[in-house]
Amino acid sequence: MLLFFEKTPICTRDSRSLFLKNLSLQNNLNKMLTVEQLRKDTEFAKERLAHKNFKDIQFVDEIIALDDKRKLVKSYLDDFLSQRNSLSKEIGGLMKDGKKEEAEQLKLKIADIKENADKLELELAEMETSIFDKLVTMPNFPNAIVPKGKTPEENEVTFSVTEFPKLPENALPHWDLARKYNLIDFELGNKITGAGFPVYKGKGAALQRALITFFLDKAMEAGYAEVQVPHMVNKDSAFATGQLPDKEGQMYHATADDFYLIPTAEVPITNLYRDEIIDEKNLPIKNVGYTPCFRREAGSYGKDVRGLNRLHQFDKVEIVRIEKPENSYAALDEMLKHVESLLQALELPYRILRLCGGDMTFSSSLTYDFEVFSAAQERWLEVSSVSNFETFQANRLKLRTKDAENKKALAHTLNGSALALPRILASLLENHQTENGIRIPKALVPYTKFELID
User: Fold this and answer.
1) Nearest of 214, 262, 208, 196 to residue 235 by alpha carbon
2) Ranges of H-type helices in 97-157
3) Which pLDDT value is given to residue 205?
4) Is 82 exposed, middle or buried (0-12, 13-18, 19+ CB in 10 A)?
5) 266, 388 in Cβ contact below 8 A?
6) How far, in Å, CA of 110 to CA of 42, rounded?
7) What single-letter DSSP state applies at residue 200?
């Protein structure tokens, strides 16, 4: 089987130059999830949110109006508290002079003031909660080069291979190959747990383990430090990376302890740096981790969820970076090259998409998806998303950097799948099937210890 990989310039060079040209603007945009930024860039904020297909654009005006009212209530409250402090001092003087009756009259005034102040404090708290609740539903602003659109069909193809594998006659989809060679048992997983929880067996399990080790080794060769992290996180961690409140219904929730099963290793790895101030000389920080991932929402129907196409539990190797703002788009290019090299080593036909505003995740500023062509299914399958979140996550994480002069700024965070296992495994089985069995790519043979599944 021969695949042709066209040599092309890195697909995001335009994104990096645009970013560097508008660096100060982008920094302001990503700190906009404050009332001050909404006030300063109101119309532009609405335009960016609309570009991301955010439905509740009216929240911008509602937040500003609520904040106007909050300021007014705060000023009344401050006046009451000032009066109370003045009267308390006056009462002290009257008591000292033996004017107890006059002091008692002022105490009655203080009681009235306290009652009014308590009402204002309650009203103030309710307004601040309402403002916060609206702010946290607002997604990150998309980068200037993010294409307009609402659906996956409107994503922009930035690169694609031009030749595809020729399969033998009567080629099978991966779920039939898995049954034929006793690699994966979907029915057994359904009995143990339910749909979307497959059992890997024999060479299927060995291939899965080989891919995980291969991806980890390649990441470490690229300078990523491996970490092993918890597979459950608390609410603060899920909020910090943007899963909450946006994806609450899509995560498995252990209600007794209020923990969430991770939808991706991005969540615990990025949260390693929550509430941290990192010296710039220690940047970039590059981590890689393997974890199982859990998602309640498995997708649609038919071929979209058949076999390994969509699962509730799947394995993934994730790369995460903490960067200085001026370096984050060069880092994004580097991450894309890394994922591309993995797909080339596995001899899989792939393409790269720049996601449109409506198809991006809540937290992302710019996302590129890698898709592998499934020759037996004759369709593209997403196997990786690589994203720059700029300061959006760092703002929630309270993750900052400091320079030599001790000046502090929000860091930029990035992550990417390198890679997600189910569809990679499906694509390997389908694209490398021959009349004699399933061929293992040369780069993977040292990990599988076998060259053919027959």
Assistant:
1) 262
2) 100-135
3) 98
4) exposed
5) no
6) 41
7) E
CA 288 to chain centroid, in Å, comes to: 15
- What whole-number distance in Å separates Cα of residue 219 and Cα of residue 221? 5
Consecutive H or E run containing 61: helix 58-96
Element (H, E) at 401: strand 400-402
Tokens linked to 99 = 């004017």
In one letter, which amino acid is 12?
T
Give the N- to C-terminal CA distance of the chain in Å, as an integer: 17
Cα separations (Å) of 258 from 163, 336, 393? 49, 35, 22
Burial of 308 (0-12, 13-18, 19+ CB in 10 A): buried
CA 116/CA 73 separation, integer angstroms: 11
Q: Is 390 helix (H, G, I), strand (E, B) or coil?
A: strand
| CA pair distance 110, 105, nearest whole angstrom | 9
- Cα distances (angstroms) measured from residue 317 to each of 180, 268, 387, 417: 28, 13, 15, 6
The closest of 338, 321, 314, 326 to 225, measured between CA atoms, is 321
Distance CA 236, CA 31 (A): 19
Residue type, 294: F
Q: Are 320 and 413 contacting, i.e. CB atoms less than 8 angstroms apart?
A: yes
Q: What is the pLDDT of residues 272-321, one digit of tens each?
A: 999 999 999 999 999 999 999 999 875 545 556 789 998 999 999 999 99
**Count of other CB atoms within 10 angstroms of residue 28:** 16
C-alpha span between 74 and 158 (Å, rounded): 52
In order of 24, 46, 236, 411, the CA distances from 28 in angstroms are 6, 15, 24, 13
90-129: per-residue pLDDT in tens? 888 877 778 878 777 888 888 888 888 899 999 999 999 9
Map residue 157 onto helix, strand or coil. strand
User: Which of the 8 DSSP states describes residue 375?
Assistant: T
Contacts of 273 (CB under 8 A, 6+ apart): 285, 322, 397, 399, 411
Q: Is 113 left (phi over 0), alpha (psi -120 to 50) or beta?
A: alpha
